[in-house]
Structures are given as C-alpha cells and as structure tokens.
Amino acid sequence: MSIDIHALSGAYAVDALDDIERAQFERHLADCPACRAEVASLQEASALMAETVLEAPPAGLRDRVLADIATVRPLPPLVTGLVSGEAVARRPARRWFPGLVAAAAVVTAIGVGVGVTQPWQDESSQVQPSAVDRIKAADDVQSFSKDFPDGSSATLYRSTSMNKAAIVTKNMADAPSGKVYELWLQHDDRMVAAGLMPDGPDNVVELSGDPATADGFGITVETDGGSTSGEPEGEVVAVVGFDQA
Amino acid sequence: MDPLRPVSDAPSPAEGASVAPDLAELLKLSGRGDQGAFSQLYDAVSPRVFGLAVRVVRDRAQAEEVTQEALLEIWRTASRFDPDRGSPLAWMLTIVHRKSVDRVRSAEASTRRDTSYHQQNQPVDHDATAEAAHASLEARRVRTALGSLTPVQREALELAYFGGYTHTEVAGLLDLPVGTAKTRIRDGLIRLRDTMGVGGA
Known about the structure:
Keywords (chain A): Cell membrane, Membrane, Transcription, Transcription regulation, Transmembrane, Transmembrane helix
Order of helices and strands of chain A: HHHHHHHHEEEEEEEE
Distance between the termini of chain B: 21 Å
Main location (chain A): membrane
Number of strands of chain A: 8
Oligomer: heterodimer
Helix content of chain A: 25-40%
Organism (chain A): Nocardioides lianchengensis
Strand content of chain A: 15-25%
Helix content of chain B: 55-70%
CATH topology of the largest domain in chain B: Rna Polymerase Sigma Factor, Chain: A
Protein name (chain A): Regulator of SigK
Membrane topology (chain A): Single-pass membrane protein
C-alpha cells in the first residue's frame, strides 16, 4: 500500500478522484480511522463552499420532489444485529462455519492491508427473473432461507443438476457506505467468492462457481469491490449449510 | 439529541439565514417516513442543494434532475445519517456533490464542454457567485476564508469542488506537476476548515 494514499483525503472529500482511485481510497478508509476522521472534517469544510452559491430552485421542483418521495419507502437503519458480530455470536459454530469465522476474525485482528487492485472484476450479474425461475422450476431445487432480526431475509435456491444457485433478498438494508455484500460458497473448509450483491432491498443474484458441490453459502460485508484476498475479510452476515434443506 | 420539537410550518427559505430548523431531527423523522418533516428539510436546504448542483452541472435542467435525484436519495437513506460522523448539512451536500460530479463526468464531452451557457475562460465566476449569495453572512465568512488560501490552493479547490474535475485534471489545468494538485486541494480544505472552525478541528 502506498504511503501516499493518505494524501488523497482532500481530493476524496471533494470527489476529485477517478473511479479507480476512489475505490482504492475507500478500501484504505476502511482500515484507517485517521483518514476517516480527516475526510469527515474536510467534507464539513467543502460543504461550506455551497454557502457561496445559494440559489432558490424553480417553484415546481418542490412538488416534484415531494411527489417522488411519496412513492419511495425510506431504508431501515443499519441494524447492528445484521452486520455486527452479534448475529454470529448467537449462532453456535457448525461444522461449515469455523472456516469462515476464523478467516474473518484473523483478518480483522491483524488488519491485513491489501494492495492488490482489481476492483469490480467480477461485478455481480443481476440475473433475469427467468434465470432464477428456471432454477426454482428444476426438479431438484432446494431452498435455504435466512431471516434477519430486522425483518429482512435472504433465500438461496439451488439446483444441483443445473449446478446453479441464485439468492433472492427481501427488504435487505444496503451495505454500509463504502461496503458491499459479498456472496460465498463453501467447499470443504474453504470459502470461494461467488459474486457481489448490488445495493437495494430486493435483489436476485445468481452465484458464480459450483453450487452443486458446495457445502453451504455465506454473506459477508466487504469493502467496495469485494474482498481482494479471495477470502472473506469482513463481517459475517449469514452462513447457511446446504445440509439443512 | 434534542427532544422532539415542532418546527414552524413554513420556515422561510430565505437565503443567508443560518439553517434554523434542527436538520438532524428532520432527517431522523424523514427516515421514519415523515413526509412533512422532509418538506421542511427541503425548504431549509434546497437553495444550497440546487445552488451547488447548478454550479457544478451548469445546465439548469440537468441541475434540477440532479437535485431531484439527490433529494430522493437523501430521503431514502435518511436513517443512515450518523450525527456522530458529521453535520446533517455536510452529509446531504456530500450526496448532492457526488451526484453532480457523476453527472458532469458522464455527460462530459456532450453537454458541459460545448455549451455556450456560462462558458468562460475564467474557471470560477466569482462575480456571479458573489451576487447570488451577497445577503449571506455565512457566505461572506466563507469567501473571506477562501480568500486566505494561496491562489493555487484556492484555484485547485474551486476547480475540483465547483468544476467537478479530478485532481489529475486540475493539475493539468493549472500546469502543476501531477500529484501536487491533490496536496493543494487538501491544504486548501484544511485551511478553510481551520479558519471556519468546523469539523471538530
């Protein structure tokens, strides 16, 4: 990791980074409380500049905005139970579980910095409804659901014969700013990255990899762009074994 | 957090008045789906939101769209605002600025560069800026603080914030060695922050 990366805090605060630098810096931010504090204070400063350009909006805009919001439900707050260790702790370790938790815990504890740049190389593909419908329609379809304390849920559908799986979320809170949900398939004791989940409460995402031979799936919260080490680094949101259909 | 208190029905959107309503409270209520609270929020912040969008996007029709998008995003994510991490106004304007910059960058060649509207060599139009905001004491303080930056710091900061340029582009525009514009931007922001006494500095 470049020592120089701290110097990007000002440019980040005024959105003066290109997309790649932004992704790199956000990954850095996740590990650097000093930079997070500096960015916050510099954003306070930059916001002051808007004081010098006040301009009353056109009269019709107010009604349009208020009409807009009437049709959109605000997102729930980020419930700590969903992304904190609490959800993990409450669940007793199961045999498919230790690999993931250990990986997450170790990485958190030593705070491994990762300098490899390969953002979004695997932008998760949002499948057409028909794709998940085909999985659901398979003779051997299995479903595995995870309900979260805030009322949201994630359901994975798997067809071994098709070697395909898709996850369907309901009311899922977005990952925290600068973070993304990453999907994993567990093969023996290894977690294999299976794609990223876009923001939005109700998603349908097809997993990459080999669901047919996997032992379970997991969801973690990773820095934008996903884990770069090939292993889960962030907090564990859910782990579900395929032996509990 | 302050206890819930009513905010007058029609807060004046008067320019220059410091933001009187409790924005953090209005955001919290908005996060619970309180459309009335959001309309008060709109009245309190829309001149800043729209002014910033116009300044960056330049095209008024597009600035309206950006404003609309940004406000919808603010409504949708209001519950994610964390008062421990900054002021409500900075949180909202950060969203607006990001959307404005995304818009000019994606519109790049087509709209912004060849529009004759507001087209000038002078990267930052201080006269128009001053005119729009002459009534605002806060604006005067900010402009004074900006005046205390070195010319390069100020230009780099304004090209980045109002021009929507990346620090690399700013370096090119100001004939600075690549890599130094980001330092000028940061130094400028730190000075602005410290002069204005914001950000817990």
